[in-house]
Amino acid sequence: MMKKFLKPILMSMLLMSSVSSFSQTTDIVIPGEILDKAREYVAALNLSDAAKKTAVEQVVAVHLVTVRDWHNQHPSSTVPAGMNPVTGNKLSELDRQIIADSAMPATVHQDLMNGLNKNLSPEQVEIILDKYTIGKVAFTMQGYKAIVPDLTADEEAKILGFLKQAREQAVDYKNMKEISAIFEIYKTKSEQLLNNNGRSWRALYSAYTKKIKEEKAKKAKEGKQN
After folding, report:
1. Helix 122-132 crosses helix 106-119 at what angle (to 10 degrees)?
2. Distance CA 125, CA 146 (A)
3. Could you tell me how far CA 89 lies from the centroid of its own chain?
């Protein structure tokens, strides 16, 4: 009889302890729209394990809220206007916002990746990261292959590695302007790789854009004739 009486109490205490621990870790409230976004991301995995599905949704939702809150609490105005030491140009508002957001504690990213890796396969983790960044890795890689038709296997592997680095870093930024700016960092590295391999990225890109314009002009001409 005593065991039956104690069991619900112990379960309640464990639940309270779990909620308390979670609250201390995140200290946030997840609004409905962010939980919906997390569920949308996780739905792409078609997980059959309900507990795992809920756990991943929670990990993603907590991360999304934390990134949003840090961004909102650290506007670009918190970074003094100054010079970009690489280019010598004045820091833009986007530069300053990225600097502010990049100061978010590294544990936020670690908690996301730890939670994903604990519950998902590496391939499934990549799907979630792609949802955050609207498939920019595949889209950008496709662009490089179109611009550089004779891309070597080694070049492709290294560029793909750069883009995956960009993707994982970009998930900690709130909007697409910032995400695109993070990808630009790694696109520059990719293009420098091609230059170092004896190619001219500028010439390759120029030839590609010329080809596209010619193809569009040809289609437009054929359309008029028809």
Report:
1. 130
2. 27
3. 27
For residue 198, which amino acid is it?
Answer: G
Pick from 124, 102, 93: nearest CA to 172: 102
Quote the strand ranges of 38-189, DSSP E. none
Residues 6+ apart with CB under 8 A from 67: 101, 104, 108, 171, 172, 173, 174
| C-alpha span between 187 and 102 (Å, rounded) | 19
Rounded to whole angstroms, the Cα distance separating 188 from 108 reads 27
Distance CA(166)–CA(181), nearest Å, equals 10
Residue 127 has pLDDT above 50, yes or no: yes
The pTM score is: 0.83
DSSP for 82-106, written as a single string: -B-TTT-SBPPHHHHHHHHHHTS-H
pLDDT tens, position by position, 208-218: 999 999 989 88
Assigned token pair, 213: 């314009």
Both structure tokens of 62? 């907590």
Q: Are 35 and 61 in contact (CB under 8 A)?
A: yes
Answer yes or no: are the C-beta atoms of 169 and 184 closer than 8 Å.
no
Instruction: Render pLDDT for 56-96 as a digit per residue (tens, 0 to 9).
Output: 999 999 999 999 999 999 999 999 999 988 889 999 999 99
**Residue 124 tokens, joined:** 């499934």
Please give the structure tokens belonging to residue 220: 């437009």
Phi, psi of 60 (to 5 degrees): -65, -45
Which CA distances in Å does 11 have to 1, 5, 33, 219? 16, 11, 31, 70
